[in-house]
Amino acid sequence: IRDSSTSRGLGDVYKRQSTDCYVFNLRRDKEFGVLKERLLPVKDSAKWRPIDRSPRRHMNSSVFEGKTKHSKMNLTILRGLLRRQGLCGPDVNDKVLRHASLLRTGAGCVQQNWHEDLYMSVIIALEENTMLLVKVGGVAKKVRLKAGQGVVFGGGFTHAGAGYEKQNVRVHVFITPKVLQNDFALNETSLSLIHI
Fold this sequence. Notes:
Blueprint: E1 2-3, E2 21-25, H1 30-39, E3 49-50, E4 57-60, H2 62-65, H3 69-84, E5 100-105, E6 120-125, E7 130-136, E8 139-145, E9 149-153, E10 159-161, E11 168-175, E12 193-195
Antiparallel strand pairs: 1-12, 2-9, 2-12, 3-4, 4-5, 5-11, 6-9, 6-11, 7-8, 7-10
């Protein structure tokens, strides 16, 4: 792991097939605490659907995409967090930032298959010991996040969801080109990043 100042820069993450990955910190952002308090009670709700054909890996997008005041407020808070980290353009509205969801992995869930995503991804840990498996130079590594930390990686970055011994809930967002609209310029000096 090395500091972002010695890496190629966050701008490289935004290339569709980028193989860069960064860890960032939201722990001092008071809005993170608000979002966490709003989302964690949802982990026991019934609005989850399976992903990856796994009975223990689920997604819930209604907490951000629903038409209720509660879900709209969640999305507004998330958008502010991403904007302050330089991961979202200044004029992005809720209709553009629509690829946000909660991911829940049940106790005993096995590792996901290694894969790449079409777009850049952001994962924000709501709970301690949130994990992501990554491949750097062909070597598998485990990124372990504390609550309030996040990881952002390009579409060409090989990764896999980790297996968990106990349930874990986290936020996942795809950052599409529209999220970076209006010639938004990245400002690395405002980011608390560590390059993996």
